[in-house]
């Protein structure tokens, strides 16, 4: 049985904590909102407004704090406050604890923001006094508790091999495919790219829906067929790389030609235009690198 603290007890934190409780672990929920603490206590859960580690054995401290966007940036103010409070609690800790960044954060947050705050407010150093890891969540709001208990993917990252092993031991019983990284920023990038990829797919089909409406076509059977015909849809490895543009005959022809079709019906396709623009940028970059290599050889 592991000792676990959930720092930030919103949807993600509550689902995480309840999942660990169901697995037989000892869990304490930490939050700054009195009404949330009262709600958790009404369910018979251990909920507190302060993290106190003075008499605690080595524990996992999961940071499940809100990271909303403000315009085109993440608001990490709650994460800063939460990391500060954890650092202050670590200052009084007798044992070494593992701090786990679980919220969706921009790549580099664990080591660029959390670690310095923990060291500053605890007076300790990473590795000697506490450990740090990233374990991004893949929970849907409507089924968060079930998604935690039955994950399809678990991502774990830490500079410390032993920390990765300990997190794996904690999370392995829940099942799901496990992926490991040594750089926490890689795990943080996974979660951001995961969400952006999903958003892009939705916007792609919405853009196609706008075209189908203009042409008087029913998109649903078309999209269902493409889901089975397009390798980019059914093959999880197709196109999953970086640094090379698409080429050949079909992809350049149809991306460019469909933009012309959209023009004839008076419809703007910003996503498709962006697809072409990104490909042009990569093609130019590849050409420049090839020219530089040729010059070096000459």
Report on the architecture of this protein.
With 298 residues, this protein is of the alpha/beta class. The protein is 53% helix and 12% strand. It is built from 11 helices and 8 strands. The radius of gyration is 24 Å and the shape is globular.
List the helices and strands and how they pair.
Elements (H helix, E strand, L loop, with lengths): L2 E5 L3 H12 L3 E5 L3 H9 L4 E2 L11 E4 L13 H15 L5 E5 L7 H14 L7 E5 L9 H6 L3 E5 L3 H11 L5 E5 L2 H32 L3 H11 L1 H4 L15 H15 L5 H28 L1
Helix pairs in contact: 3-4, 10-11
Rg result: 24 Å
Count of discrete alpha- or pi-helical segments spanning 4 or more residues: 11
Distance between the termini: 65 Å
* Helical content band: 40-55%
Q: Give the low-pLDDT segments.
A: none
Widest sheet: strand ordering: 3-2-1-4-5-6
Class based on secondary structure composition and strand pairing: alpha/beta
The biggest beta sheet, please? 6 strands, parallel
The count of β-strands is: 8
- What global shape is seen? globular
């Amino acid at each position: 049985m592991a000792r676990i603290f959930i720092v930030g007890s919103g949807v993600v934190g509550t689902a995480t904590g309840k999942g660990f409780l169901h697995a037989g672990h000892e869990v304490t929920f930490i939050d700054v909102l009195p009404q949330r603490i009262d709600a958790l206590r009404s369910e018979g859960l251990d909920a507190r407004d302060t993290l106190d580690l003075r008499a605690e054995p080595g524990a996992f401290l999961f940071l499940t704090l809100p990271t909303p966007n403000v315009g085109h940036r993440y608001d990490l103010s709650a994460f800063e406050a939460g990391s500060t409070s954890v650092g202050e609690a670590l200052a009084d800790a007798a044992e070494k604890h593992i701090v786990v960044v679980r919220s969706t954060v921009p790549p580099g947050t664990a080591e660029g923001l959390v670690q310095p705050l923990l060291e500053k407010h605890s007076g300790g150093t990473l590795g000697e006094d506490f450990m740090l890891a990233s374990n991004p969540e893949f929970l849907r709001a409507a089924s968060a508790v079930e998604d935690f208990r039955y994950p399809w993917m678990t991502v774990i990252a830490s500079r410390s091999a032993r920390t990765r092993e300990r997190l794996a031991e904690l999370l392995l019983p829940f099942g799901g495919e496990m992926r490991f990284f040594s750089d926490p920023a890689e795990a943080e990038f996974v979660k951001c790219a995961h969400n952006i990829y999903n958003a892009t797919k939705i916007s792609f089909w919405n853009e196609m829906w706008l075209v189908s409406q203009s042409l008087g076509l029913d998109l649903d059977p078309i999209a269902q067929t493409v889901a089975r015909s397009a390798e980019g849809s059914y093959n999880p490895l197709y196109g999953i790389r970086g640094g090379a543009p698409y080429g050949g005959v079909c992809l350049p022809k149809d991306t460019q030609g469909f933009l012309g079709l959209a023009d004839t019906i008076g419809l703007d396709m910003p996503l498709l235009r962006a697809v072409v623009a990104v490909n042009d940028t990569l093609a130019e970059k590849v050409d420049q690198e090839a020219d530089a290599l040729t010059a070096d050889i000459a």
